[in-house]
Fold this sequence. Notes:
The complex is a heterodimer. Chain A has strands at residues 4-6, 11-14, 19-25, 32-38, 45-50, 54-58, 61-66, 71-76, 85-92, 101-102, 106-111. Chain A is mainly beta. In chain A, β6 and β7 (61-66) form a beta hairpin. Helix content of chain B is 0%, strand content 55%. Chain B has strands at 5-7, 10-13, 19-24, 31-38, 42-50, 53-56, 65-71, 74-79, 88-95, 103-104, 108-112. Chain B is globular and about 35 Å long. The interface between A and B is medium-sized, with 18 and 26 residues.
Amino acid sequence: QKEVEQDPGPLSVPEGAIVSLNCTYSNSAFQYFMWYRQYSRKGPELLMYTYSSGNKEDGRFTAQVDKSSKYISLFIRDSQPSDSATYLCAIDANFGNEKLTFGTGTRLTIIP
Amino acid sequence: DAGVIQSPRHEVTEMGQEVTLRCKPISGHDYLFWYRQTMMRGLELLIYFNNNVPIDDSGMPEDRFSAKMPNASFSTLKIQPSEPRDSAVYFCASSFGTDEKLFFGSGTQLSVL
Lengths: 112, 113
């Protein structure tokens, strides 16, 4: 079993819809949870990170962590065509870049 | 700053040839990471450096892979000899401190025929 599982998609939704992206993980020692966005032919860029269970909001983006279920989500409200990208979750036990475990990514397309 | 700069953007080579990928980290960053990304395995850490010193190369798949960082502004990842299964996108990333934001380059798309 992989440490982090992520549905690869692809996922296509109409502009303005709410998008839900998800990852599950197996190791209860993981405490830090990040979402990266990767545009085509570009490197990943950090979108959000959170430490505890619960929700963290940043504009149209909300990161949600449920440690009891080992499940993390990223919600995008009022989705825009510019949100079309691959979204990768990344998880860490000790908040150090050298130990990040990445999901394989979900490819998202927002249809105008 | 121009960000993390990688070259070349694309590399097509034949099996058995030597391949060298290059990276210039963001000035002032003391950590440098090499990753490989494939559809099946996602993003995998190959090796990382701190202050130009290799700290952990346990992710390097085989002895055919080697990495160097001769100074704070330059690193190379070399594959010799290359094989078709090495085909992937290779990313370099840097950060100021291991727990600070990680900045990725745009990657090198490597195709080994």
